[in-house]
Each structure stands twice: as C-alpha cells, then as structure tokens.
DNA sequence: TTGAAAGCGCTACCAC
DNA sequence: GTGGTAGCGCTTTCAA
C-alpha cells in the first residue's frame, strides 16, 4: 500500500479510502487507481480485518455438499451475502456433530460476521461457542424448539404427515416408510416421526425400514424397497425419506415388474430434479432449498444491520422464518 | 491472549507456543490450556496470518457446486487439505470467466497459500493475477496446453472418442451427440470435439444437437433427444455430454415407447450415481471426480512443502497429473 | 524453557 | 479532501 501511495503521490490513508470507495476527489481517485493497476496491488484482507475489527466472512455449515438440497441452499446464501461483500466459509459436517463442533471452532478463528448452520441439534460445546461468538446465527432447515438465535426452516414432521394424508386420501391404506438408519440425520428422523404420527392417527399400522447412512443416495431405494416388501408384501404405498431413495425404489419396481403407482405408489421428499424427470414422475414434497439459503442470508444481513445501528453486543433476534412446502402431485402416487 | 497469559501466569509468547503445539513444559502447557478453556478463548486467525505472513487458506474455484462432479472434487480437496490445517475458500464461477476473475481477485485478498481452479480457460487478467500471486496453482479437470502452473485432469476429447469407438464396435453407425449450447463449458466442448473427430475418422456423419446452458441437468435430455430424432430419425445411438442428460434422454425414450438400447442406444459421461441406479443402467465414462480433488490437494501440498524447503519465490512445478477414465459398459449401450 | 520488544499491513481517529 | 499517528492481536526474533 505504501508503494501505491508513493507512486500516486498521496498518503496510505488516501489509498485506503479509494479501496473502500469513500470520499476522495475524482482526480485523486483516478491517480490512485492507476497506481494500483500499475503495480497489480491486492489489499491484504487479514490486515484490514485486524485493523477494523471486522472480517468479511460468513460461516456456513451444511451436512453434505453433495446433496443438491444443501448445495442449493449454499447458492441461495451466496446470492444474498456476496453482493454485500461477504466471503462464504463453507464447511461440510458430514452429518457428524463432533465434526460440526470442530468446524465451528476452526471457523470462529476467522471471526465471521455471521453464521449459518443446518439443523437444530448441536453439541453443547457448539452452542456455547456460537452464543459466545456474539454474532448473528441462523439454524436452517428445521424449526428448533429452542433456537440459538434465529431459524429459517420448516417442520419436517408436519411435511411428512401431510404426505401421508395425501396418500391416505388417494385411498392407500398400507403405507410404508423407508429412510436411513442413522440417528444423526435429524431431518430424516423428523420425517419418520411425522409418518408414524399420521399413520397411527389414522389407525393404520407402521411399516418402517431403516437402512444405510445419510446422505441418502439413489442406491438406497432398491434394497430398502426389497426389505419393505419382504416384510410386508401387501404394502400399497411407500413414503421415502428423500426423492433420491424414491427414485431408487421406483427403478427397483421396474426391475421387479411392479407398476408404479398401479401395484405400489411411491412418494418422495424434496422435489429434487430427478423427481420431475423420471418416469413415472415422482409425487413429492417441494421445499425451496435455494429459498432457505436466500432467506437465511437476508435474515443474517438484517441482524447485522441492526447490530451496527444499535448496541455492539448482538441482541439475539430470535426471529423464526417459516418456509413453505407443498405436496407436488405427479404420477408415482 | 493477554487475558489467557495473565490467568495462566505466563507471557503471551507461551500461550502462542501452546496454541502452535511447540516446545512448552507439560506443566505450563496444562496451565495455559486450562486458562484457554476457562475463558473460552479463540485465537484470531487474521492476526496470526498478518503476523506470520502466511494464511491458512486454500482457494478453490469450481464452475458449479450443484454438479455432483464438482462437489465430489471439493470433497477430495477437503480430504487432502483439511488435515494440514488449511481452510477452503470455495467459489462457484457459474461457468462465467468474468465471474471467475472477480472471485480470484476477491480470494487473493485473503492471501491463500495455494489455488485450485477448474479448466484450462481463464481471462488474461485471471492468469496474470494467478501468476503474480506466487503460490502453487492447479488447474483441474483438463490438461491445458499451457498450464499456469500444475494440472490434474484428463483429455475430455479423448475420453469422448473412446466412447464413440465403443459404440462403433458394438455396431452402431448413426451416432448422435447431445450437449449444451454454451461456449463457456469447455469440457463439454472438448467432448463434442472428440465425438466429431472420431465420427469423422470412421466415415460416419455428424449428428449434433446443442441446447441449453451449463451445467447440463436432467431436464436437458428430453428436448435434446426430441430434437435429435426430429432431424435424424434413424439415429441408432446417442452420446450425451453428461449422465444427467443421458438419464433425461432415456426417460424420454420410455415416454416415446422407444426401447433402450433396442431402438436407440444411449451413452453418458461422468458415471454419476443415476447412471448406475437407473434402468436401463447407463453405459458411461467413469471419471474419478473425488480423486481429481484428492490428487489436486496432494499436488498443492507437495508444492507448498517444496517452496518451504527451497527459495521463497514459488518455482512453478509444471507437473501434470493424468487422471484415468474408463468406459463402463452397462445396459443402455 | 520462557519472556520482551518489534512489527506485520491495514483502518480509526483526529488534525488540518 | 487529505495526512499523520496509534494500534488491532498475533508471531518472529533474540535474549535470558
């Protein structure tokens, strides 16, 4: 920066102002900009952060970047935060709460301006770290009973209930559920819970197969469907924890010579791309994953703006943004 | 850190050494660690980076996080770099070279220790910035004619030729290609180039449909297949620029009552999960996307180790790692 | 094995 | 509109 200042014949402060886009006379600004280009000068963000006491980072934690759900959410966050000069620090927890804690710890070292993470469940240490960080926090994809700060999500249980209701209304009575075996995928467990509640409420019996790790992939569907039909051969509909699994199940139906939905109806969750493209097209719950990211970003920005205006100590906003979901009726159920 | 030092009754330097895991007497180390836990102290990475002149960042640029290809590559990079204490700065270029340049510029402000980016094509300014950065750079997913520094990838053109060869050997003679319309997806264009070369070399005629933006998604396949069959109704095989498109095309064949591969063979590229799960299972080119990330990470680490040992000015390694690919023969072709 | 001083590159603050 | 000074929280270097 000294070099640039010298070349432009101004002080470092003026260079700093030009970079920050603050009040500088047009002529001066041009000279400085020229010097910057000349020297290929790139300001050091670490020095800036240290000096000003505010970084340009936003921390983001998702269970898995490979799931289109969460990569869409990350895209939404990027869309909201990048225009405000925030650089995303993205971490992949792999559905592991200990790993989440390690990642939070490591990200906190970079003094992020705000934090977005997935789900309602975290280790006590993670919660403690997050609260102490004193920056806006949003938990995404769930509506926690006691949020750390704010939340942007929906009730996975209620959404699953709605799908069971849809199936019941279409006349299906022997409805199964296939999902993952892991206790770590809380959203999957919530969906299972919603399924169980609604099935019981209607006096139907539960038919649950839990198999495999999260994230649930396409290859989950085939063995899960086989297991379900082996135990309950007369099953007439199956709700899958995700469209990935639903797709695998439908392909397995093809292989077994079962028609969908004629012999068995299959419903998914998430409205992934495959649900619309596959034949039969998959009936599913549509969740706006990108919107969750976007709304989360906006919520964080609003909290940042407030904190700037008011006291320094982050006043937890506790706001909770409910994201809509809808049953998309297609061909498979 | 002063607070921690005071509480532990040592100097700041000793606290710093404990955090860095350097030579400190066990008793002292314990006292310090206790004070750290007590106060919930989290070291400031910006200050550390500024003081030591070396950040803990690795910059990564991919065209799209939504493509499982690239999210797998990011996972591979994480696996390689995270254990060495490097934090990934992930950017999504959206197949836009201008955006790539902006992202590089913004990431460079954080003084990354190394940089991984996708493809061989960049704006002149991007190349300039990257060279001036003086840190190891790896270009992934391609083998550039004149790499900036190192490269980890394969020839997309040769891989596509191999698939055409496979199809020709299975007796297909009227082979089409469906891909994206964008000039920005260089890997897609390379695949098209390979197709054209091999088709011409065998005296067959080209049948090319280019449609839609990158990243190519499942919904690309159906309209592209329709367009192909409208123009060349007697097509007996189609090579798709990606498995996503191939899947969409196969589903469209189902809808049109065409049997695959009986009426028309369909081949994909990438060996995505859907290729193995769908029926008929998709014949494709398998590329180890995760491995590209892993190898890239290892290449970067090796370069960092060298630079540490030797001179400060990064000696470009110019090494080029070739990644294997293979035709996976399944049911669809 | 530990401590003290200097300074990394920038921005906040106050003068002019 | 511009410049000087102080100092952000660490690590480097050297001394004890």
From TrEMBL, chains A, B:
Gene3D superfamilies: 3.40.50.2300, lambda repressor-like DNA-binding domains. The keyword Nucleotide-binding does not apply. SUPFAM superfamilies: lambda repressor-like DNA-binding domains, Periplasmic binding protein-like I. PROSITE patterns: HTH_LACI_1, HTH_LACI_2. The keyword Iron-sulfur does not apply. Keywords: DNA-binding, Transcription, Transcription regulation. Residues 1-52 form the HTH lacI-type domain. PANTHER family: LACI-RELATED TRANSCRIPTIONAL REPRESSOR (PTHR30146), TRANSCRIPTIONAL REGULATOR (PTHR30146:SF33). This is LacI family DNA-binding transcriptional regulator. It comes from Paraburkholderia azotifigens.
């Amino acid at each position: 920066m000294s070099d640039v200042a010298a070349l432009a014949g101004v002080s470092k402060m003026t260079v700093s102002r030009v970079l920050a886009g603050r009040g500088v006379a047009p002529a001066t600004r041009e000279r400085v900009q020229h010097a910057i280009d000349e020297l290929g000068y790139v300001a050091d963000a670490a020095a800036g952060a240290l000096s000003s006491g505010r970084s340009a980072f936003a921390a983001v934690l998702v269970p898995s970047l490979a799931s289109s759900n969460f990569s869409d959410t990350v895209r939404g966050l990027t869309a909201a935060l990048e225009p405000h000069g925030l650089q995303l620090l993205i971490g992949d927890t792999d559905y592991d709460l200990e790993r989440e804690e390690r990642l939070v710890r490591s990200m906190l070292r970079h003094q992020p301006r705000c934090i977005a993470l997935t789900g309602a469940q975290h280790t006590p240490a993670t919660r403690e770290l997050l609260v102490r960080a004193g920056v806006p926090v949003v938990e995404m994809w769930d509506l926690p009973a006691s949020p750390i700060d704010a939340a942007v999500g929906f009730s996975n249980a209620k959404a699953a209930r709605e799908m069971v209701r849809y199936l019941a209304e279409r006349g299906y009575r022997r409805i199964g559920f296939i999902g993952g075996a892991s206790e770590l995928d809380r959203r999957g467990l919530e969906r299972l819970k919603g399924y169980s509640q609604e099935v019981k409420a209607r006096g139907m019996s539960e038919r649950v197969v839990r198999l495999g790790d999260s994230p649930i992939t396409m290859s989950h569907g085939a063995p899960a469907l086989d297991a379900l039909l082996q135990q309950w051969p007369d099953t007439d509909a199956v709700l899958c924890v995700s469209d990935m699994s639903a797709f695998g199940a439908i392909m397995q139906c093809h292989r077994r010579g079962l028609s969908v939905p004629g012999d068995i109806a299959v419903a998914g969750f998430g409205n992934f791309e495959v649900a619309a493209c596959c034949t039969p097209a998959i009936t599913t719950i549509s969740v706006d994953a990108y919107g969750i990211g976007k709304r989360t970003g906006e919520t964080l920005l609003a909290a940042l703006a407030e904190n700037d205006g008011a006291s320094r100590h982050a006043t937890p906003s506790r706001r909770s943004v409910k994201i809509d979901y809808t049953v998309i009726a297609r061909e498979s159920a």
